[in-house]
Design goal:
The protein has 163 residues and is mostly helical. 61% of the residues lie in helices and 0% in strands.
């Protein structure tokens, strides 16, 4: 026999039961629906209905969500929009909002402040890349010619001072 449109389905019955007892657990709701209405429902279905009902965004008395109110205030403020300015403006309106929540909404709007990138790392040329085998052999030849490595260092330092 086909069900008539007036007959409520299990999901509707679960919603009705949870509306009367909002703090009931899924297992308590299953037992209560069986006892009151004589209908078997699964714990999973009750849990899904509860979860879906909880997922709806909270709407304030004026019909807007907190995120909508944050967006509205952010567009009315001069740029750059800072989260603490938005939080202060919302507090004047009696709306509690955390700085983190405001930051997330601003980021989604594309109003989040962008920071300059850090300095680039200085590229230091290593000694190994500037010295070749030929230059090392020439330095050794100079040290042998002058008598010691210290004498060669002194000569190179004097050459650097000359220019």
């Amino acid at each position: 026999m086909a069900r008539t449109p007036a007959d409520p389905n299990k999901t509707d019955l679960i919603r009705q039961y949870l509306a009367r007892r909002p703090n009931a657990t899924a297992l308590e709701a299953v037992r209560g629906i069986k006892r009151e209405m004589g209908i078997d429902v699964s714990v999973g279905l009750v849990a899904k209905v509860k979860r879906d009902a909880a997922a709806a965004p909270a709407v304030s008395s004026n019909g807007a969500t907190k995120a909508d109110q944050i967006r509205e205030v952010a567009t009315s403020l001069p740029k750059p929009v800072r989260p603490r300015d938005v939080v202060a403006k919302l507090a004047e309106q009696g709306v509690k909002a955390s700085s983190a929540q405001v930051s997330q909404v601003l980021k989604g709007m594309g109003l989040k402040r962008r920071r300059r990138p850090g300095r680039r790392a200085v590229v230091v040329e290593t000694v190994a890349s500037t010295l070749t085998l030929d230059s090392l052999l020439a330095a050794k030849k100079l040290a042998v010619h002058l008598g010691s490595v210290e004498a060669a260092k002194t000569a190179v330092d004097a050459l650097a001072k000359l220019g």
